Amino acid sequence: MNLRWLNLSLVAIVAGLCSGGCHVAPGRPEAVVTRPDQVTDFRVLYKQNCAACHGEDGRYGDAISLDNPAYLAIAGTANIQKVTADGVPGTLMPAFAKSQGGMLTDQQVAVLAQGVVTAWGRSSALGGHTAPPYASSTVGDPAAGEKAYTTFCASCHGADGTGVVQGKLHTGSIVDPSYLALISNQGLRSLILAGQPHEGMPDWRFDLQGPAARSLTDQEITDIVAWLASHRVTTPGEFYPHS
Q: Which of 148, 146, 180, 171 is nearest to 160 (CA)?
């Protein structure tokens, strides 16, 4: 056979193999790649979008712990879904919904919200107590908030909010302008309402474990948040005043 015709025959054979799917190795099934907007597995979505800030298991992250049944019971699925979709302006919590500039579909946002509640929620989380509402409907009074802070919070966070170091108890400053610049008023309220059980911080039910022998009221929580917020400054992090 002429060498030229042999080369042409080989080319034809290779072309035929490729047209039949030569991108798949013999005996190996073709991989199916799921588009990012088609991922609906909660564990995958949480790891890709939430774990970096809220912790791999919903705890010990820089953001609020989601592995907190009291928080989930007070916030509810609807609020968690809204925050996930819209984010929190002025904080490190971004908007994840495509409609708000994020990367997730409405379905994926819903899967995340429902998945968090299903994974870490508990129907008995509030122990028969009626919690104050997730969001405040009144304006806080910083002066009243300072008094409530002294009663309920100072024993752990210090008389002026700058923290204490006592035995195994180490609390940082909660009036540091840099900290307050990174957390919203609702974030402060959520921490007071639900506490941080993995860090030893009790929730609003001080009648169970606090020095005041009763629970915090809605207005007291609102006032404490107002007092904390009054420590915010326009330019947090600036060490040197303008001359």
A: 146
